[in-house]
Amino acid sequence: MEIEPKYTFVPFTQKNLIGINNKTVQEFLSKWGIKGNFIIQHFSFNEPFQQYHKYHLVEAFFKDDSVAKELLTKQGNRWVKQGISASNVEIKPVPCSVLNMSFFNKLKDPKNRIVHKSGTICKTYDMELENFLVSDNLRGMLLDQECLEYHLYLKDEREEFIFRIFQILVLGGILCQYEDTLNPYLEVTKAIYKDLVRVQKKEDTDLSVSTIVLQVVAKDSRGQAYFPHDPSHIQNLGFLLIDYVTHEITTFLHQFGEYCLSHLQ
């Protein structure tokens, strides 16, 4: 029987996330009430890694003391290092196979009633779903299982990491100024996805994604979720991304709530 490897995690300086830190992208994130409500951190590990070790790696990561000292979580409107080492970690694989933005072409086709021929998003009667105001077919497609547009994307497509990023952006934060056109959402989705996901070509084979994405809920000794807090909320999401080529781990945590002022280092 193979012994599971014992991992050592080392935090490292923030990478220059070129897409996310782009001035225009930052302006849109601010407009949608998202800026400051997600945090991205980077860690490395040196031990050998096989894909079937992924659940063991994630559990070891959240239970590691050096990670606990560095991991930022949201407290009120600040990001702080709470030093919590997980007692329990719920892990769910997230498909991450999309290689280009043609994945969203269905949204651009006026026949699908998300946008008009002019490119503006189709409005609808206001309704509230999951505490979000749904006033157009784009949000209906994301939240309203009763509407035709919801079924444009199959269940496995909706679970793709790029779709999850897109949904975070479109639903936005508490103070969200929605867009009238689709393109800004797509451009910012692309920028974030490119910063987080590695695409590689192996010899003569086609391109493929070499990043493993897992959705995570980490709980403390009292059984309280802290990564993210209140995971029942559709916009509270924690992801852990494993780059098995470079032996890097990236955490991506989004917490719905007040605009976040800053974080402690």
TrEMBL record:
Belongs to the CFAP300 family. It is found in: Cytoplasm, Cytoskeleton, Cilium axoneme. Signal peptide: none annotated. It comes from Xylocopa violacea (Violet carpenter bee). This is Cilia- and flagella-associated protein 300. Keywords: Cell projection, Cytoplasm, Cytoskeleton. Pfam families: CFAP300 (PF14926). Cilium- and flagellum-specific protein that plays a role in axonemal structure organization and motility. May play a role in outer and inner dynein arm assembly.
